[in-house]
Design a protein that fits this description.
81% of the residues lie in helices and 0% in strands. By secondary structure, the protein is an all-alpha fold. It has one domain. Helix 7 packs parallel to helix 10.
Length: 218
């Protein structure tokens, strides 16, 4: 898990730092910065390993669920384990991704002191939590192929959101930077996304437990 996370998030973090460097410098690449964040942030809760990345060809999530149910392990315990994996993945992937951006982007360091950058980071992690609950729901209730289709669909929605924001003259990165710079760790946007993210995970968890009881794993 650590190696795959280092490779993927290291690459995405390094690439994002260059784009953000230009965005904060002269405004170039604003839409690219939004697209990058809108597509990467939902992946923070993913566990990057050989087994999980075979969900499309081997339907590894369904097989894992069937195995754990056969032991038998209660549905609530299965979901709790998945949520803990998501939290640990967000912690690891988020540290790599946001750490590299702050390390490599001098403009970001000039714009946001460390505590303000922490608010910026937590704002986006909150957004990641909002969709993590939905992803866990689909992961445990759909086949590998269906899960892939949903992920691709959501990715197009994220990109579309970034494009529409750009066409409207806005920019999500610059807006979150502005909020973090003005409010720091008291940012209403940061606390709002964290609260909504927590509620999303809990609500989708309750719904997942209910639906898992009747899911056919054959």
């Amino acid at each position: 898990m650590l190696l795959w996370s280092l490779l993927f998030m290291g690459y995405m973090g390094g690439l994002s730092s260059m784009i953000i460097q230009d965005t904060l410098d002269n405004g170039d690449g604003k839409i690219l910065a939004d697209i990058m964040f809108m597509t990467v942030i939902p992946m923070l809760g993913f566990t990057f390993s050989k087994r999980t990345m075979k969900y499309l060809t081997e339907d590894s999530y369904t097989r894992m669920l069937a195995y754990m149910r056969a032991l038998p392990i209660p549905t609530a315990v299965i979901l709790c384990k998945r949520k803990l994996n998501a939290v640990s993945s967000i912690g690891l992937n988020g540290t790599i991704f946001f750490g590299l951006i702050y390390a490599f982007s001098s403009n970001m360091r000039k714009e946001l002191p460390f505590t303000d950058y922490l608010a910026f980071t937590l704002t986006w992690i909150g957004l990641g939590l909002i969709v993590s609950g939905l992803y866990i729901f689909i992961e445990l209730l759909a086949s590998g192929k269906a899960y892939f289709i949903y992920v691709m669909l959501f990715t197009f929605i994220y990109i579309g959101t970034a494009v529409l924001t750009w066409l409207a003259g806005g920019n999500l990165i610059l807006y979150t930077v502005s909020c973090s710079k003005e409010w720091g760790l008291l940012s209403p946007l940061m606390w709002g996304t964290l609260v909504l993210g927590t509620l999303s995970v809990q609500l989708f968890s309750a719904w997942t437990i209910h639906r898992l009881k009747s899911r056919d794993l054959v």
